[in-house]
Amino acid sequence: MTRNSGVLFQRRIFAYIALGASLLFIIPWVAMQLSDQVQWDETDFVVMWLLFFSFASGYVLLARRFEKRKRWLVGSVLFLTLIYIWAELAVGIFTRWGS
Questions:
Q1: What per-residue confidence (pLDDT) applies to 98?
Q2: Residue 92 region, left (φ>0) first, then alpha (ψ -120 to 50), else beta?
Q3: What's phi and psi for 24, nearest 5 deg?
Q4: pTM value?
Q5: Bigger pLDDT: 10 or 97?
Q6: Model pLDDT for residues 28-62, shown as the tens digit of each residue
Q7: Mind telling me which residue stretches traverse the membrane in this protein (predicted)?
Q8: φ and ψ at 52, to 5 degrees?
Q9: DSSP single-letter state for residue 25
Q10: pLDDT of res. 1
Q11: Is 57 a member of any domain?
Q12: C-beta of residue 70 within 8 angstroms of C-beta of residue 36
């Protein structure tokens, strides 16, 4: 098995990421059908899809440059950054991005 034969090095990984990001939005869509407390519009779906896709794609591109042992660190930093940006957009912890 060569270094570039893993799933991270396949081109179709980006299609899987796009599909996965799209499938995640079944959760808020169903929540919108069941409750009035979840109120997303089209912009919310687009922004969150772009966030998920860009961070997951960023992980793939960065992980390709690191050894397998260090990929968890790359993933952890990107995941924490994603959570922070999502929280800022949702409620504005330190800024008024979400307001």
A1: 60
A2: left
A3: -65, -25
A4: 0.77
A5: 10
A6: 889 999 999 888 888 888 989 999 999 999 999 99
A7: 12-34, 46-63, 72-94
A8: -60, -50
A9: T
A10: 43
A11: yes
A12: no
Residue bearing tokens 């059908």: 33
Question: CA angle 72-63-60, nearest 5°?
Answer: 110
d(CA 99, CA 91) in angstroms, rounded, equals 7
Residue 59: domain span: 7-91
- Is the Cβ–Cβ distance between 64 and 8 less than 8 Å? yes
Please report whether residue 97 resides in a domain.
Answer: no
Number of domains, the chain: 1
Q: How many CA atoms lie within 13 A of 41 on its CB side?
A: 1
Structure tokens at 6: 């893993």
Structure-block tokens of residue 69? 């042992």
> Residue 3's pLDDT is what?
55
DSSP state of 29: H
Q: Which single residue is written with the structure tokens 């997951």?
A: 56
- Give 76's Cβ-side CA count (13 Å radius): 5
Which tens digit of pLDDT belongs to each residue from 3-33?
565 766 777 889 999 999 889 888 888 999 9
- 68 domain residue, yes or no: yes
